[in-house]
Write a structure and sequence with these properties.
Elements (H helix, E strand, L loop, with lengths): L1 H66 L12 E4 L9 E5 L2 H6 L6 E3 L6 E2 L5 E2 L3 E10 L2 E10 L7 E3 L2 E5 L2 E5 L14 E2 L2 E3 L7 E3 L3 E3 L3 E3 L3 E3 L5 E2 L3 E2 L25 E4 L3 E3 L2 E9 L2 E4 L2 E11 L2 E4 L2 E9 L3 E4 L9 E6 L3 E4 L7 E8 L3 E4 L2 E8 L6 E5 L2 E4 L5 E6 L5 E8 L2 E6 L11 E8 L5 E5 L4 E2 L6 H11 L13 H11 L15 E6 L6 H4 L1 E7 L1
Parallel strand pairs: 8-12, 8-31, 9-13, 9-32, 10-14, 10-33, 12-15, 13-16, 14-17, 15-18, 19-21, 20-22, 21-23, 22-24, 23-25, 24-26, 25-27, 26-28, 27-29, 28-30, 29-31, 30-32, 31-33
Antiparallel strand pairs: 1-2, 2-6, 3-6, 4-5, 6-7, 7-41, 10-11, 34-40, 35-36, 35-37, 37-38, 38-39
Length: 547
C-alpha cells in the first residue's frame, strides 16, 4: 500500500507537471500568435499609410503642375514634393521628386515632366515617357514599409483642325484632315490622318457642310449638323447636340511687349512698310499695312490696331493684333516657315488656290474667320465670347499637332557694335571690334541698328537707351559708312564732325560698362494653344497603379 501510494503520488506529480507544461506551452503559443497577429496588423496598417501617402504625393504633384506646367521640367533640384498626414505615425512620409540626384539619395525613383517635349524621353528605371506626358512616381514610407505608386498622364495637344465658339460653314471644295508631323505633309491626300471639327453654337445649323466638303475625322457640335446628302463626306462620327468642346482663350494683352522689362522693343513709326524683315520684339501703335510680304526671323510683332499683309507671311515668328488681321497670299511649304497669328478681331486668309497659297502655324481669332483659296497647316481656332463664325471656301485645313505651338529664341537686336575711343575728353578714333573682343579702355560702345522701316538709329547697348542726338539720317548714314569700312581708319570719324559732336552731346554724363556682352542674352518666347485649355479638360490618365 505504501509503495502503491508513493507510485500514485509520483504519477500525480508527473501528471501535474505535464499539465502545467502543456498549459504554459499553450499560453506561449497563444501569446506568440497574438503577437504575430498584432505585428501583422501593424504592418498592414503601415502599408496602408505608406500607400496613401504615395498616392497623396502623386495628387499633390498633379495639383502643382495644374498651377505651374513647368514644375518638374526646370530647376529640378527644387522640384520635390513631400506629403504628410496628421493621423499617420510620426515617421510616415510621402515624397515625389523630379530630380534624379534627390531620388538617388533617397534610394528611390524619380518623375519626369515631358509636357513640352516633342519626342519620347527615358524616365526612371528605363520607363519611356512619350511627348506631352507626365510620368509621376510617388513613394510612401511608414514603419519600415515602402509603397510606390506610378501614374502616366498624357495631355494631347489641341485635337481639332478647326474649332469655333460659334458656327462652321463650308462652300466649294473643302478638306479637313490631319498629319502626324510636318514631314508628313507631302503624303497623298488618301494617306492623311483623321482631322476633327468642333462647333459650340447651339443653333440647328451650327455646322453646315456644303457639297464638296470632306471631313476625314469627327464632327462635334453643340447644335445641329447639316451634311449635304451625297456630296459632303464625314468619315468619322457626327456628334450633334453634344457637350461643348473646351477651347483655349489666349490673353492677347499679355503678349504686348510694351510692358516687358529687360528687352528692347523696336517701335514702328510708319503705318505702311514695304517687304519688311523683322527680328526681335517689334511694336506698332495704330494700324499697319505691309506690302510685298512679311518676313520674320524669330520675330514677335504686336500691332495695337488692325493689320493687313499683302504677299503672305514668311519665316518664323508670331503676329498679334488687337484689331482685325487680313493676309493676302501665302508662303511655301518650307520648314523655315512657321508662324502664329493671334487677333482680337476678325481674321481672313485669302490666296490664289489651296495648291499654291500656304500658311503653317496657329491661327487664333476672337472674331470671325474666313479661309478662302488657301491651305492652312496647323490649327484654326475662333473663340469670340458671343460666338464666332468660321467660313471655309475652297480651302484645306490640315491639323499638325507640332504647329499648334511655337517656341522662339529672340536675339536682342542690338545691331552692329562700334566703339568711339577717347583720351580723357578728347576724341581719338573710331572702329569696329575684332572678333569677340570688347571695347578698349576709354572706349564708348554704341550700336547701330537698322529699323524695319529702313531708317537707322543708335543705342547704348546695356540699357538699350536710344541716343536721340544720333537719329538724324545723315548721322546714321555716316555711322554705317564707318562700320562698313569705307572710311574706318584712324581718326576716320573726324571726316564727319557732326557725328563726333552729337555723340559727345549724347553720351555726356552717361556711364557705359567696359563690355556689352552681358546684354546679348537671347529672350525665349513660347506660345502653345494647349496651355490655355484647362488642364483637367485635357488630362488623360493612361494608368495609375501601385508598382
Amino acid at each position: 500500500m505504501g509503495a502503491r501510494g508513493r507510485t500514485n503520488a509520483g504519477m500525480g506529480l508527473g501528471t501535474t507537471l505535464m499539465v502545467v507544461s502543456l498549459a504554459l506551452l499553450l499560453v506561449l503559443t497563444l501569446t506568440a500568435s497574438q503577437w504575430n497577429t498584432l505585428n501583422f496588423s501593424a504592418r498592414v496598417g503601415n502599408a496602408q499609410h505608406a500607400l496613401n501617402l504615395a498616392e497623396s504625393a502623386v495628387s499633390l504633384a498633379i495639383a502643382r503642375i495644374l498651377a505651374e506646367p513647368e514644375f518638374g521640367a526646370e530647376d529640378l533640384e527644387q522640384s520635390t514634393i513631400l506629403a504628410t498626414h496628421p493621423h499617420a505615425p510620426r515617421d510616415a512620409t510621402g515624397w515625389l521628386t523630379f530630380d534624379p540626384g534627390t531620388a538617388a539619395n533617397r534610394d528611390g525613383p524619380y518623375s519626369t515632366n515631358n509636357l513640352r517635349g516633342d519626342s519620347a524621353v527615358p524616365g526612371s528605371s528605363g520607363t519611356v515617357v512619350p511627348s506631352a506626358t507626365i510620368y509621376l512616381v510617388g513613394v510612401g514610407e511608414c514603419g519600415g514599409v515602402r509603397k510606390t505608386v506610378e501614374a502616366m498622364i498624357h495631355l494631347p495637344r489641341f485635337p481639332y483642325s478647326i474649332a469655333s465658339s460659334g458656327t462652321v460653314v463650308t462652300s466649294g471644295e473643302v478638306l479637313v484632315a490631319a498629319a502626324a508631323s510636318p514631314e508628313a505633309l507631302g503624303v497623298a491626300l488618301e494617306d492623311l490622318l483623321p482631322g476633327n471639327l468642333a462647333a459650340n453654337a447651339s443653333a440647328e445649323q451650327a455646322v453646315v457642310l456644303a457639297p464638296g466638303a470632306v471631313i476625314t475625322g469627327d464632327v462635334a457640335s453643340h447644335g445641329g449638323v447639316e451634311v449635304a446628302s451625297g456630296n459632303a463626306v464625314v468619315m468619322g462620327e457626327v456628334r450633334a447636340y453634344s457637350d461643348r468642346s473646351p477651347l483655349p482663350r489666349l490673353p492677347l494683352e499679355s503678349y504686348d511687349p510694351a510692358g516687358l522689362e529687360g528687352i528692347q522693343v523696336q517701335r514702328l513709326r510708319q503705318g505702311t512698310l514695304e517687304a519688311p524683315a523683322l527680328s526681335g520684339f517689334v511694336r506698332r501703335q495704330g494700324d499697319l499695312s505691309i506690302r510685298g510680304g512679311l518676313t520674320m526671323d524669330s520675330a514677335v510683332l504686336f500691332v495695337d490696331g488692325g493689320l493687313v499683309v499683302e504677299g503672305g507671311i514668311w519665316g518664323k515668328g508670331a503676329v498679334f493684333a488687337t484689331g482685325p488681321v487680313s493676309v493676302h497670299g501665302g508662303s511655301d511649304l518650307s520648314s523655315d516657315n512657321l508662324a502664329a497669328v493671334v487677333s482680337g478681331g476678325d481674321v481672313s486668309f485669302t490666296g490664289t488656290g489651296p495648291e499654291g497659297s500656304y500658311f503653317q502655324g496657329l491661327v487664333y481669332s476672337e472674331g470671325d474667320v474666313l479661309a478662302q483659296q488657301v491651305s492652312l497647316f496647323g490649327a484654326l481656332i475662333a473663340n469670340a465670347p458671343q460666338g464666332s463664325r468660321i467660313q471655309l471656301e475652297d480651302a484645306r485645313l490640315i491639323h499638325v499637332p507640332e504647329h499648334t505651338s511655337l517656341e522662339l529664341q529672340l536675339e536682342d537686336p542690338l545691331g552692329t557694335p562700334f566703339f568711339f575711343t577717347y583720351h580723357g575728353a578728347k576724341f581719338s578714333g573710331a572702329g569696329a571690334p575684332k572678333g569677340n573682343s570688347g571695347p578698349k579702355k576709354d572706349s564708348v560702345p554704341v550700336y547701330v541698328r537698322r529699323q524695319p522701316d529702313g531708317t537707322f538709329v543708335l543705342f547704348e547697348p546695356v540699357s538699350n537707351t536710344r541716343l536721340t542726338g544720333l537719329t538724324s539720317q545723315g548721322v546714321a548714314d555716316a555711322m554705317v559708312r564707318l562700320l562698313s569700312g569705307m572710311t574706318c581708319k584712324k581718326h576716320g570719324a573726324s571726316r564727319f564732325p557732326e557725328t563726333e559732336t552729337e555723340l559727345l552731346q549724347a553720351v555726356r554724363g552717361m556711364a557705359f560698362p567696359q563690355s556689352p556682352a552681358a546684354r546679348l542674352k537671347p529672350a525665349r518666347f513660347t506660345l502653345d494653344a494647349s496651355r490655355f485649355v484647362a488642364f483637367q479638360d485635357q488630362m488623360r490618365i493612361m494608368y495609375w497603379r501601385e508598382r
